[in-house]
Amino acid sequence: MASRGLNKISDILPLLNDRGIDLSSSQIYRLIGQKPERISLQLLFAVADVLECTVEDLCAYEAVDARTQLRKADTDESTVASLKDSTRPRRARVYLADE
Fold first, then answer.
1. What is the pLDDT of residues 31-59, one digit of tens each?
2. Confidence of residue 93 (pLDDT cuts 50, 70, 90)
3. What is the domain count for the chain?
4. How far apart are CA 44 and CA 40, in angstroms?
5. Domain contains 53
6. What are phi and psi of 77, to 5 degrees?
7. pLDDT tier at 81, thresholds 50, 70, 90
8. In a domain, 23, yes or no
9. Average pLDDT across the chain, whole number
10. Hey, which of 36, 45, 66, 76 has its CA 20 to 30 A from 84?
């Protein structure tokens, strides 16, 4: 934002309005000042257009192999309960009310 001369949230509001995005200043603050959990593609592309950057510049991600994560979890004894040493549950006996 600073490299584009947008130093305040109020500077970016009219630029987003020109692109069809109508948000309040508090919504923009949460979007820019915090890490949003979800964002619409329309808003993401509008912010990238306003800031003259790509989506990759705005969103950092790290690809992780899920198989590696599963193997790592299998070897981590502190977070996995061992079922080998546990006792078997007792079988329940169900009786009818008139017995």
1. 877 877 888 889 888 988 988 888 888 87
2. confident
3. 1
4. 6
5. yes
6. -75, -25
7. low
8. yes
9. 77
10. 66
DSSP secondary structure string, the chain? Answer: -GGGT--SHHHHHHHHHHTT----HHHHHHHHHS--S---HHHHHHHHHHTT--HHHH-------HHHHHHHHHH-TTTS--SSSSPPPPPP----TT-
Percent of the chain scored above 70 by pLDDT? 76
Of residues 58 and 85, more confidence is placed in: 58
33, part of any domain? yes
**52 inside domain:** yes
The 8-class DSSP code of residue 39 comes to: -
Report whether 27 contacts 36 (CB < 8 A): no
Domain holding 27, by residue range, is 2-58
Residues 6+ apart with CB under 8 A from 35: none
